[in-house]
């Protein structure tokens, strides 16, 4: 067993958080990650409703039988924080407040008895979330699936570990035991894993997404804002999203089209046009596997690697 501050504080068997993936991580996925000994986070997207949170939290608890984690997007809370109330009503153990300044929300999370964590993409972000009083910081690198920053996981993780006394997790590009062992050897207390779980039958989202991920290699992703602009998702400009390249990105990424044109050309039902957010570990995801197996294998392999004689 890999024993870290993350496993101790949350009483986990493995130092893995299942990433809060909006549109893909509902109660089944989160519950399976928790059942395997990590902590799965529900991905409450900007368009999620309080009812969705309550229903998926119940599913996650039933499957996972343990603590509940939920991820929210801070910039979306700044416009309407009712989703935070819905999340705190579920008595979570951990709330992730990422992409923005979590300061207005951390006290409420703590008052509800939960840990607050934030993903950061730069050292400036680190200072913001330290001031806000979060309990763990997650260094999220450019190779991550979904929305992320521009610095690679390894350079960012090293910078963050050197610059803070907070416990640090790593996210972005961790898809096997090798990745988990690497970040733990570097000083992280664990990893937040997203893409590696996305070919699991417990994911939600479009039917085609799992197959597209399995087909994709590590060079088949693109960092872009065109899907946000097509889908009227008002993400602050500094965060692009990493998605699988497809006919839509070939046609529109970097073309300078306006939002109206992008929306008119977008069709989420079409497997060649619809967005599949995923990171560069897409190349390591080669078959559909239950999330619990993915988590257990990553943890077991990491432990073996960390114990091997050098
Ligand atoms: C499909 C997808 C959706 C995501 N949605 C969110 C989200 O709603 N909130 C969030 O904080 N992070 C989100 N992320 C980022 C993850 O929390 C995490 O940083 C990332 O998956 C880690 O990198 P990896 O995909 O290489 O494992 C998303 C990632 C993916 C792949």
UniProtKB/TrEMBL annotation:
The keyword Flavoprotein applies. Keywords: Flavoprotein, FMN, Monooxygenase, Oxidoreductase. GO terms for molecular function: nitronate monooxygenase activity. The keyword Oxidoreductase applies. InterPro entries: Aldolase_TIM, NMO. Transmembrane segments: none annotated. It comes from the Bacteria. It holds the Pfam family NMO. This is Nitronate monooxygenase. It comes from Rhodococcus xishaensis.
């Amino acid at each position: 067993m890999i024993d870290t501050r993350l496993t101790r504080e949350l009483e986990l068997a493995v130092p893995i958080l299942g990433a809060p993936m909006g549109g893909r991580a509902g109660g089944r996925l989160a519950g399976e990650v928790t059942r395997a000994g990590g902590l799965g986070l529900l991905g409450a997207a900007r368009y999620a409703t309080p009812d969705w949170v309550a229903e998926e939290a119940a599913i996650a608890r039933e499957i996972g039988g343990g603590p509940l984690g939920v991820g929210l997007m801070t910039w979306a809370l700044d416009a309407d924080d009712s989703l935070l109330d819905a999340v705190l009503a579920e008595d979570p153990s951990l709330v992730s407040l990422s992409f923005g300044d979590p300061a207005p929300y951390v006290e409420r999370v703590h008052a509800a008895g939960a840990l607050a964590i934030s993903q950061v993409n730069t050292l400036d972000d680190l200072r913001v979330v330290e001031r806000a009083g979060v309990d763990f910081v997650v260094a999220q690198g450019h190779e991550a699936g979904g929305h992320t920053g521009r610095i690679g996981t390894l350079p960012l993780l090293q910078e963050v570990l050197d610059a803070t006394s907070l416990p640090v997790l790593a996210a972005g590009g961790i898809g096997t035991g090798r990745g988990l062992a690497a970040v733990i050897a570097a000083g992280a207390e664990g990893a937040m894993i997203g893409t590696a779980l996305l070919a699991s039958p417990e994911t939600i989202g479009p039917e085609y997404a799992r197959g597209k991920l399995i087909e994709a290699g590590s060079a088949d992703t693109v960092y872009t804002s065109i899907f946000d602009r097509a889908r009227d998702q008002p993400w602050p400009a500094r965060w692009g999203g990493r998605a699988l390249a497809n006919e839509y990105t070939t046609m529109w990424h970097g073309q300078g089209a306006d939002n109206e044109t992008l929306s008119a050309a977008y069709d989420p039902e079409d497997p060649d046009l619809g967005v599949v957010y995923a990171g560069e570990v897409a190349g390591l995801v080669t078959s559909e596997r239950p999330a619990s197996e993915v988590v257990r294998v990553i943890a077991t392999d990491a432990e073996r690697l960390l114990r091997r004689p050098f």
